[in-house]
Fold this protein.
Amino acid sequence: MLNATSFQKKTRSKLISIPGTRPSVQNGQLLVSTGVTSLDYLLGGGLAVGTVLLIEEDRYDSYSRMILKYFLAEGVVCRHELFVAAAQDNPDDILQELPAPILDDIAIHKPVEQQRLFCEPQDSVDAMKIAWRYQNLPKVQSALASSSRFGHYYDVSKTMEPEILQTAKCHRFNVPEHPTQSSPTHSPMLESYTALLKSLQEVIYKEGFDVATAMSKSRNILRIGLHSLGSALWGDDLCCCDNPRHSHALTTFLYGLRSLLRSSLSVAVVTVPSHLIQNRALMDSITRLCDNAIALESFKGSERETNPLYKDYHGLLHVRQVPHLNCLSSQFPDHKDLAFKLKRKQFSIERMHLPPDLSERVSRVSRGELAGAAVVNSACGSGTSGNKHLDF
């Protein structure tokens, strides 16, 4: 008779397989890419599904808007569904500005063109000669295919082609189409935020993003982009006075947003004009209600723009908060001197390195040392009788 034992072999739980996602090596959480590979590295490998990334806008909302467009463009490439909400611009205007993906790594084979290549007459084949090693390679097309890799590269100097953008399923929320007056029932949340939360809830439950629903079809990710929450265009007065009347409207909305995301296959990026919010304690509360938080400090319009020490960068990036998911402590970046720069075709985040001190004073000291060394050499050489080499 075998002895009874309570030992059970530990089996690894099966993770959901969704294109454009990967499990975290730290806590096993499902991750999606922000579209900026350097930002994914700072956040521990990517954005965890069910979390909120807060971006404190720069003064002119140039670079924070660009990161939001990177996030949405990555969703288009991975065939994720999008939800875009804005007050200043129409959501369609943001979608039209998405950067164009570099399609070299996700081009697919086109067998029709390959068959036509072998059916062409001999005269047309002989008309163009190519290297022999490329003759038997199949032709590829530049049309977008659903890519299973994690993270892609984009060209910010070009916009995404309409044919690619039409393949994405996008839900839009435009604030001018909804009332922005406060509720007569003394609700702590504005009508614009209430309508936005209801719209998000309908999309999550109707489109099957809720984790509790039965898996009747293949699962997908919902990417949510909320632009410039807390601004006056949303009907909020956080940026207008030190003691706003709707001080708890945005925080109440973030509570509801996090509760929706925790039980769904969704991830959100929220931008807030923090430089206009006078109450810093309230801004700290908004930051703590989000899982990830970064702040962008642009050099545009400041003294650092003309400072030669920062000539290689366009601004500073501050990591305010990192997520604490399935762990007791979070992995904070090992360095805080972070800067971002916009190249001709790419936005990147790097560790800031100041250039060496090559000022006029240093060069003058160097010239003085060289002159002193020349005097010493000439003095030593004068004691020799016509011999250029010194004998010690």
